Amino acid sequence: DSGVTQTPKHLITATGQRVTLRCSPRSGDLSVYWYQQSLDQGLQFLIQYYNGEERAKGNILERFSAQQFPDLHSELNLSSLELGDSALYFCASSKDPSSYNSPLHFGNGTRLTVT
Amino acid sequence: GQQLNQSPQSMFIQEGEDVSMNCTSSSIFNTWLWYKQDPGEGPVLLIALYKAGELTSNGRLTAQFGITRKDSFLNISASIPSDVGIYFCAGANSGNTPLVFGKGTRLSVIA
């Protein structure tokens, strides 16, 4: 158990809808990362937060947004969903992103299916 | 952006065999990490490497941080069925830049 909790585990929704994925980081970790994993693709970095502030942005679509709350949990919002958004969405956390020997620990992901 | 080339893409091996996979980059990294992903789960950290030339073991797993800082390899000795999964390499330059992941090596072990 990595200590990173993601809910829900599975989500099935229709095109055009909006969903919210939730992540609770490991106790003591201040930084949260979101990654997308599509079939036959590696892990694509979406966005990173540190202590409530956006730290880095990757290949995140404008239809997607995220935030990190004062209690350090994070939410990833996906709107105007398209079939191609179907994927596994992972959250990861780390203690101190300014230190490169603070590796990421991943949750078990949310599997999103858009029909 | 930075990309990691991971090979092979997939491997089928007999139980008991040794396995080797590697990761190369066109640019240098200060940190190399190896993760394993089991079906339906998130990636789990196996080994972290922080110094060029470093060789680190974790049980039957051994990984090395290449001298050029542009590559890393992972060896698994005496493979067992539970080694099945996808192995990802990842690199980072500093804590302020996100990890870059390879596309993974899918390992299948035949009993």
Summarize this, please?
The complex is a heterodimer of chains A (115) and B (111). By secondary structure, chain A is an all-beta fold.
List unreliable stretches of 5+ residues of chain A. Answer: none
Report low-confidence residues of chain B grouped into runs of 5 or more: none
- What portion of residues of chain A is helical? under 10%
What is the N-to-C succession of helices and strands of chain B? EEEEEEEEEEE
Largest beta sheet of chain A, briefly? 7 strands, mixed
Strand content of chain A: over 45%
Helix content of chain B: under 10%
The number of helices of chain A is: 0
Rounded to an integer in angstroms, the radius of gyration calculated over CA atoms of chain A is 13 Å
Distance between the termini of chain A: 31 Å
Spell the H/E element sequence of chain A: EEEEEEEEEEE
- What would the principal axes of the Cα set say about the shape of chain A? globular
Question: Could you give the count of β-strands of chain A?
Answer: 11
**Rounded mean pLDDT score of chain B:** 92
The secondary-structure class of chain A comes to mainly beta
Mean pLDDT of chain A: 92
